[in-house]
Amino acid sequence: MRPATEAELAQIIRDATGPLVVRGGGTRTIGQCDGTVLHTGGLSGVELYEPGALTLVARAGTPLAEVEALLAKENQRLPFEVPDMRGLLGRRGESTLGGVVAANASGPRRVQVGACRDSMIGVRFVDGRGSVIKNGGRVMKNVTGYDLVKLLAGSWGTLGVITEVSFKLLPLPEAGATLILSGLSDAQAVAAMSAALGSPFEVSGAAHWPGQGTFLRIEGFSASVAYRADRLRAHLAAYGVAEVEPGTARWAAIRDVAPFHARTGDVWRLSVKPSDAPGLAARMGAEAVLYDWGGGLIWALVAPGNDLRARLGAFAGHASRVRGDAKGAFQPEPAGVAALTAGLRAQFDPRRILNTGLMGA
Amino acid sequence: MEMPKPNAMIVSAKSRIVARLRKLLPADAVIEDEAETRAYECDALTAYRCPPLAVVLPRTTAEVSAVLRLCHEENVPVVPRGSGTSLAGGALPTADCVVLGVSRMNGVIETDYDNRYIRVQSGRTNLSVTGAVESDGFFYAPDPSSQLACAIAGNIAMNSGGAHCLKYGVTINNLLGVTLVQMDGTVLEIGGPFMDPGGLDLLGVICGSEGQLGVVTEATLRILPKPEGARPVLIGFDSNEVAGACVSDIIKAGVLPVAIEFMDRPCIEATEAFAKAGYPMCEALLIVEVEGSPAEIDEQLGVIKQIARRHNPVELREAEDEDQAKRIWLGRKSAFGAMGQINDYMCLDGTIPVSSLPYVLRRIAEMSKDIGLDVANVFHAGDGNMHPLILFDANKPGDLERCETLGADILKLCVEVGGCLTGEHGVGIEKRDLMNVQFAPDDLEAQLRVKDVFDPKWLLNPAKVFPLASTASRRAV
Question: Would you say the ipTM is above 0.90?
Fold first, then answer.
């Protein structure tokens, strides 16, 4: 099914007699759910773009690439650096805004500007009852009523089918540079990234690719980038002499987890306290790891059947299996939190027809 | 302002309820004497007052849990309170409620510079969070005007902003986790010292829920390294429209100031008379602040000044030293106090798309003239968060009512141009009855259902945020 309007979508959901699988571009879905596929691609198009107000409103089925091209013409961008998951997950198709939001997909710039959900200022969606609901709007600051915008971000289509999203944007920087430290152990690398992120030099990316180097990104006006790169280099002298590479081209590979593309095996994504990261990584028995977010995000390539949650036991954070057995992709929640999640799903989708099976239930 | 009729059964059971509370808490943590509960009869929206049944001031999460469990069992409404600085009546009690104040829970639990967070008890004041880390070069970014007094608990409840959120975001963008005590006494850990931990974003909906989903007793907050420096520039214009256009051009140019503040003539005049900051007398004034090293600041201010000059400013003044920077901010920071000196005022908080600034300011001036009450405007222009101050005389019969009418009309105007009722103060009781202007019934129903999940008996701060009629059947349960 491929509704062309929000009203048509609402009717489909009201009339549904069985489970629905909500599908944008299908480029970043994880987990397993069965049912009639409901494509959102018909709900496409930018409804409002005001460069002077740094605001974009678009329908959820709008291709990400179309939006990125439109913003680039005005020297602006979505702040949170959306990862392209096709290479990692072996998918084709065109990522849509709705899918980006449903997955709360955020790249390396997360450490500086926040996640996808932090740039979201409004949402429209159709819940499992078939009601059209709006929350937030198109303004930067809004505390009117409960923030369902955040609740819908990262909800993987389990509370409703997102039909429209509003973002605040950022200007494209004039220039960028990447500092590269070599030969650091994972623990040294995380310490160096912490030192960088704790400095006033506005680091917009901090990643460690074992064997390849430790990377720190700076963006802004040209003179300012040169100045901060220089100061940051001095600030990190204890970790070696950093090479300064002009530009930021290499960050796409980190964002998209390119090191794992050509390799087989399961891929896990862990959100952790950065200083815990090297210790956790050492216990994973992973074939390869990639650290982003200053160590707060670990991508791990492991042999199939190696259940990292069982292996690591309790730790501060969260682990998803993004590639491999779809069952158990999402981490089970503690009982009290799980009860709230179940309660919210029962309220928004009382017939349990939306993406049943995702997010652990 | 209508409040629900207090439950007579609860009021008549006061002595028994208080006796049960006393068994749970130390003697000094339960207040029932009428003279003493008066201190809690209102928040910063002082036009509305009501002493509560009792006040409790717990010191630990366990005590909060015990109090809530008891109130849940007795069906007693609970009004959580941080420092009581809400401008929206978020902490206004009812005669049948227990006020749960977190002010005694104000400690720092953990500071972690490597991972850039601080864990505090929620009664800690906003400014003292920065106070705990600034000697090590860090700060907590959200900076509401009341930051000297307001508590983190209230900041989380209202998702507070501040002058610098153009760059650093509001509370939710700087909050990593909370300890939440549910109305039935259940204690939950939501989030923690890590980012985006999967699962539904409960933290995102708890923040800004105005104390209706649970009581936050501890919070993990993101702290940031202090910038190398900051410098403001003051730009005066001979019309609001031109100032508004200048704001839009600055944003478009790719500079990201930490703050763009706007004051109009009535506000400049009042502030000047009060604080003598040396502001130029003009129709509109912008304060734009940027951060970085001296050279970076020069570069950014260079771009901003170039844009400003295209709009023919009547004044363009850059701070040359710390003292001049302070003087530029002095007037802005004294604006509310200055207005308070000359009048009673009501401070609104609607947010509008930046592009609608000139139109909205013109309409406010017309509406102000029609109703015969002056309005001064001072606000965060970079993000469209207006703060019209309606001046009135509380002792003059009919003035408060006219002020409320004008306030409602201005907020309706904000919604009409694509904005919202409140950008950072919250709905509380003040804007409760206007929610229908911004939201359709289904939009509101979806929010009520969230409360149904967290607080099925509707006992937490029940008479706030939503129009009373829309919650009556739920509150009756």
Answer: yes
